């Protein structure tokens, strides 16, 4: 004897199934950050592809620094450097002849996304973000062209400003070197720390970039 199994017949009174927002399972963005303050690009791409713009923006909440490129050039120690000062920052000088050698590194940097938020459990000020090559900074770039404490970003009344910390190789906004006086940064600005370039993106701009490039 043959039997057929039929599913429940759908009626007009049945409520449509509502897809669960995948971001609710993730909790806060800070849980995705590694010890360097970085979030895996592939995870963000997957989230952007599977949720609405509104849900993604609400989850991200704050701007990010998205890796753009690494400038070609040479690194050299400062003159008259003592042996015990070997942990000093190297001077970086741009050199277009080395551009081909930096292509792979630049492509790798494009996978770096640094949200401007603090790690969970931190007791430090929530609106100040430090950039440098050593532990203790919020955004760590372990490169000898980066100073130990290179720059500081600060959120003031929903506006982000940045200042250089008298670093060896400087901080730039759209190719203009800045000083230790705070300068406002805007959505889409290119921020350079020594030879590393990042794009300052709002959550909406990040979502647009991830969905357009995905």
Estimate percent helicity. 10-25%
How much of the polypeptide forms β-strand, as a percent range?
A: 25-35%
Cα Rg: 22 Å
The largest pleated sheet is described as: 7 strands, antiparallel
* Morphology call: globular
Order of helices and strands: HEHHEEEHEEEEEEEEEEH
Sequence of strands across the biggest β-sheet:
1-5-2-14-13-10-11
Q: What is the count of helical runs?
A: 5
User: Mean of the pLDDT scores?
Assistant: 79
**Which segments are poorly predicted (pLDDT under 50) over 5 or more consecutive residues?**
1-7
Distance between the termini: 52 Å
Overall structural class, as computed from helix and strand content, comes to alpha+beta
Count of distinct strands: 14
In terms of topology, how is this protein built?
Elements: H1 22-26, E1 39-40, H2 41-49, H3 53-60, E2 64-70, E3 73-76, E4 91-94, H4 103-109, E5 112-115, E6 128-132, E7 139-140, E8 151-156, E9 159-164, E10 171-173, E11 176-177, E12 183-185, E13 190-193, E14 196-201, H5 203-213
Parallel strand pairs: 6-7
Antiparallel strand pairs: 1-5, 2-5, 2-14, 3-4, 6-8, 8-9, 9-12, 10-11, 10-13, 13-14
Helix pairs in contact: 3-5
């Amino acid at each position: 004897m043959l039997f057929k199994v039929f599913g429940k017949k759908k009626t007009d009174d049945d409520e449509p199934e509502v897809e669960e927002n995948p971001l609710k399972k993730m909790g806060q963005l800070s849980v995705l950050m590694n010890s360097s303050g970085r979030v895996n690009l592939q995870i963000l791409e997957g989230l952007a592809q599977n949720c609405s713009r509104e849900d993604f923006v609400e989850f991200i909440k704050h701007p990010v620094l998205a890796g753009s490129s690494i400038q070609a050039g040479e690194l050299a120690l400062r003159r008259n450097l003592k042996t015990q000062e070997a942990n000093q920052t190297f001077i970086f000088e741009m050199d277009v002849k080395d551009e081909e050698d930096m292509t792979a590194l630049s492509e790798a940097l494009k996978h770096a996304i640094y949200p401007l938020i603090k790690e969970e459990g931190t007791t430090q000020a929530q609106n100040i973000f430090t950039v440098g090559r050593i532990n203790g900074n919020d955004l760590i770039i372990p490169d000898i062209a980066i100073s130990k404490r290179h720059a500081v970003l600060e959120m003031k009344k929903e506006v982000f400003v940045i200042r250089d910390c008298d670093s060896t190789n400087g901080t730039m906004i759209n190719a203009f070197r800045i000083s230790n006086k705070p300068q406002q940064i805007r959505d889409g600005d290119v921020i350079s720390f020594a030879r590393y370039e990042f794009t300052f993106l709002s959550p909406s701009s990040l979502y647009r970039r991830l969905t357009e490039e995905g």
